[in-house]
């Protein structure tokens, strides 16, 4: 399991404060409320997101499916405070992220994993992970580099590889480094924009299992945007983005493991 | 790349700065050598030509130029720049027992003096010639405040006169005024000395009075008239029969606190002068001629500095723009991770500053060597060529030169351009380093601020999308 008792990184569910006396308590951690987004295309206004609302629970693995151009990436960018909606609000733990400060929200509360890994090529894998630890305000105690090695090691990147430039690693390894960066920030919400899109099937499966573990064992909320039914099938909740609205796929939580102590509830779709 | 560019730009600018600084120091040295004296002068030529004009009515013609009153002189002397001022009255005297010493001009064709001795007065205990170092006391003492106040009959004579007449301190010598009778001319600046010898001039001698020799001086300045005796203005007034409160026809010299204030003092004090024929004069012409080549080089280096500064800022701007653009993806990545824009800009500034400080350090040393090369050229081709020019002009002795020397105290120092060349100091002191640092910071700031400010407008999503 991915834990670090010394630093408190990646606390498992027993340690999580949302678990109270073994009773399953669901907690809405992230909300999109009446989000609207459009752009002008060839003189015509094209609505991408139309009064979209959705609640996301802690410890749940969500996937958002949709055809190309449906606005999946835009939705993820708005959720990740990389873009501003025309209307509506994004709430994290009940607070409007605009009031919280978008930069602060990005810094301390979310991590985004991209399809193309988006790593700093002139740094080693460990340095990439360490860089994100330096950005967050809740500084980790102890040796950051050592912690970066540990996180990478637990994601399958051994120390010798961790000291290599990321360009010297395979695609799967680079994506693991990207996930390690997200874990290094020790945030509750992880967003992924086609994070397995560039990976082979075997690696893709490994990464998805990793996301599942993060959600179910460590209480992270994972929201992935994907066009792959196979990836979506592994998630707890499948959401379809159609005509600017999110529609929950019926019984999409059938595959959720019973041992998971996280309950999920879609408050509004 | 940025380091190399900064190195080149800094070297060019620093070289210019160091040369300019050296030129400034040299100019200050020349100025200090020339001195900080300002003379009150009367423009006799203009006065005489105005009076001899056929348009001037006979009734308005006068042979006596308007005098400067002591009140005006004191008003001018009250300037904050004036450290002391010297009013030097003079009289021509003869003696029945003391003979004049042989002088350098005695054998010349120009017979300047009608009398044996020139008696030079002073309003202060030290005569201006002592202050300017034209003469130095070798025996006895100078005048006291009481001597000045009471008009004590005391004189300081040259060692040449003392030696020729076997005189010593404490001896009493008889002196009498030499009365000049020039057709239609009397008074004016320089008093009895202002007239030019002519065949029409006749001299006579008044009754003698006794004067105590209180000191013996030695002439230091070449060509100094050793038949000059020093006393107080009160004695001169008594001999000439003029009152001290009268308009003065004496030589007036204002010694300022700094050579730098000469021009300002003249500009501020000229309005006090009551006649168009009066003027305040400092030997600026020599300063101007000596500093002309230095000014030219200073001007050229100023242009060089500004051109390099502007071009340098543009190059740095372009380089930092490329620098930022090359790392745009990294910026987008950091922004998407929640890094603050100001912190990213601060990081860039830090990186640029580290490079700039490194380039600054290397340039401070290397520009010193470049400056030395340039300065050798300046010394060889400008300063020392000026030396030969000055040397050739100063060897020409004219009647006018001799006349002027006998009528006024030499208050301007001579400038040896070899000394100026030797003192062409290229050492970098703290103030120069401060200036260089300021220029460097401004250059880097101007060059890098615009591309760095652009970061404030970066949208992380757009950057990451563009890259993907």
Write structural notes for this entry.
The complex is a heterodimer of chains A (269) and B (468). Chain A has 269 residues and is α/β, with parallel strands linked by helices. In chain A, 30% of the residues lie in helices and 25% in strands. Chain A contains nine helices and ten strands. In chain A, the strands form two sheets. A six-stranded mixed sheet of chain A has the order 6-7-8-3-9-10, sandwiched between helices. A four-stranded antiparallel sheet of chain A has the order 2-1-4-5. In chain A, α4 packs across α5, α4 packs parallel to α7 and α5 packs across α7. Chain A is globular. The N terminus and C terminus of chain A are likely disordered. Chain B is of the alpha+beta class and 468 residues long. In chain B, strands 3, 4, 5, 6, 7, 8, 9 and 10 form an eight-stranded mixed sheet that branches. Chain B has a four-stranded antiparallel sheet with strand order 2-11-1-12, covered by helices on one side. Chain B starts with a helix and ends with a helix. Chains A and B meet through α3 and β6 of A and α10 and α15 of B.
Rg of chain A, rounded, reads: 18 Å
Q: Whole-number average pLDDT of chain A?
A: 82
* Strand residue content of chain A: 15-25%
- Please tell me the CATH architecture of chain A by its name: 3-Layer(aba) Sandwich
Number of folding domains of chain A? 1
H/E series of chain B: HEHHEEEHEHEHEEEEHEHEHHHHHHH
pLDDT averaged residue by residue of chain B? 76
Total count of helical runs of at least 4 residues of chain A? 9
The tally of helices of chain B reads 15
Largest sheet of chain B: 8 strands, mixed
Global geometry of chain A: globular
The topology string of helices and strands of chain A comes to: EEEHEEHHEHHHHEHEHEE
The helical percent of chain B reads 40-55%
**Largest chain interface and its two residue counts?**
A-B, 23 and 17 residues
Please give the order of strands in the largest beta sheet of chain A.
Answer: 6-7-8-3-9-10
> Can you tell me the number of structural domains of chain B?
2
In CATH's first tier, which class of chain A applies? Alpha Beta
The count of β-strands of chain A is 10
- CATH fold naming of chain A: Rossmann fold
């Amino acid at each position: 399991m991915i834990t670090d008792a010394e630093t408190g990184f990646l606390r498992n569910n027993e340690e999580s404060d949302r678990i109270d006396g073994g009773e399953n308590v669901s907690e809405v951690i992230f909300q999109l409320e009446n989000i609207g987004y459009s752009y002008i295309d060839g003189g015509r206004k094209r609505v991408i997101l139309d009064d979209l609302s959705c609640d996301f629970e802690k410890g749940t693995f969500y996937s958002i499916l949709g055809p190309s151009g449906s606005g999946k990436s835009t939705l993820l960018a708005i959720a990740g405070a990389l873009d501003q909606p025309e209307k509506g609000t994004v709430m994290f733990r009940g607070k409007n992220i605009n009031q919280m400060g978008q930069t602060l929200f990005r810094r301390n509360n979310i991590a985004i994993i991209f399809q193309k890994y988006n790593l700093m090529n002139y740094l080693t894998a460990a340095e990439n992970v360490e860089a994100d630890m330096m950005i967050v305000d809740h500084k980790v105690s102890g040796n950051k580099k050592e912690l970066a090695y540990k996180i990478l090691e637990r994601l399958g990147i051994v120390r010798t590889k961790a000291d290599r430039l990321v360009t010297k690693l395979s695609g799967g390894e680079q994506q693991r480094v990207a996930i390690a960066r997200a874990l290094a920030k020790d945030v509750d919400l992880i967003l992924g924009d086609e994070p397995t899109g560039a990976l082979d099937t075997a690696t893709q499966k490994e990464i998805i299992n990793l996301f599942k573990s993060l959600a179910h064992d460590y209480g992270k909320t994972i929201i992935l945007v994907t066009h792959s039914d196979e990836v979506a099938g592994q998630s707890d909740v499948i959401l379809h983005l159609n005509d600017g609205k999110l529609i929950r796929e019926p019984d999409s939580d059938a595959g959720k493991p019973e041992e998971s102590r996280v309950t999920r509830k879609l408050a509004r779709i | 790349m940025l380091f190399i560019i900064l190195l080149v730009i800094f070297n060019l600018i620093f070289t210019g700065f160091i040369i300019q600084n050296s030129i400034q120091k040299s100019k200050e040295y020349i100025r200090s050598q020339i001195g900080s004296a300002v003379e009150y002068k009367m423009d006799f030529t203009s006065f005489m030509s105005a009076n001899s004009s056929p348009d001037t009515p006979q009734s308005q013609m006068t042979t006596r130029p308007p005098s400067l009153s002591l009140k005006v002189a004191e008003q001018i002397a009250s300037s904050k720049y004036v450290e002391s001022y010297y009013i030097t009255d003079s009289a021509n005297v003869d003696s029945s027992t003391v003979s004049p010493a042989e002088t350098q001009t005695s054998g010349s064709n120009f017979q300047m003096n009608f009398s044996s001795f020139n008696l030079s007065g002073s309003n202060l205990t030290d005569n201006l010639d002592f202050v300017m170092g034209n003469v130095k006391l070798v025996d006895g003492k100078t005048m006291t405040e009481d001597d000045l106040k009471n008009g004590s009959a005391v004189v300081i004579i040259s060692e040449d006169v003392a030696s020729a007449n076997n005189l010593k301190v404490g001896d009493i010598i008889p002196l009498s005024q030499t009365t000049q009778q020039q057709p239609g001319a009397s008074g004016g600046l320089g008093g009895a000395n202002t007239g030019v010898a002519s065949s029409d001039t006749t001299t006579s001698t008044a009754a003698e009075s006794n004067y105590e020799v209180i000191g013996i001086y030695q002439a230091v300045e070449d060509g100094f008239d050793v038949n000059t005796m020093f006393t107080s203005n009160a004695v001169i007034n008594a001999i000439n029969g003029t009152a001290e409160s009268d308009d003065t026809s004496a030589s007036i010299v204002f010694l300022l606190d700094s050579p730098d204030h000469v021009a300002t003092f003249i500009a501020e004090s000229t309005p006090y002068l009551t006649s168009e024929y009066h003027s305040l004069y400092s030997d600026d012409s020599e300063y101007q001629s000596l500093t002309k080549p230095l000014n030219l080089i200073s001007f050229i280096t100023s242009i060089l500095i500004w051109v390099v500064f502007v071009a340098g800022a543009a190059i740095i701007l372009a380089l930092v723009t490329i620098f930022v653009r090359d790392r745009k993806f990294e910026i987008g990545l950091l922004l998407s991770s929640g890094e603050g824009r100001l912190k990213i800009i601060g990081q860039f500034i830090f990186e640029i500053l580290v490079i700039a400080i490194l380039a600054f350090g290397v340039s401070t040393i290397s520009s010193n060597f470049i400056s030395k090369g340039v300065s050798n050229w300046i010394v060889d081709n400008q300063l020392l060529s000026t030396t030969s020019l000055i040397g050739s002009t100063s060897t020409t002795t004219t009647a006018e030169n001799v006349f002027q020397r006998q009528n006024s105290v030499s208050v301007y120092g001579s400038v040896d351009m070899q000394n100026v060349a030797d003192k062409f100091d290229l050492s970098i002191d703290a103030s120069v380093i401060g200036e260089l640092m300021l220029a460097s910071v401004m250059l880097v700031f101007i060059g890098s601020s615009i591309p760095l400010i652009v970061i404030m407008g970066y949208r992380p999503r757009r950057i990451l999308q563009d890259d993907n």
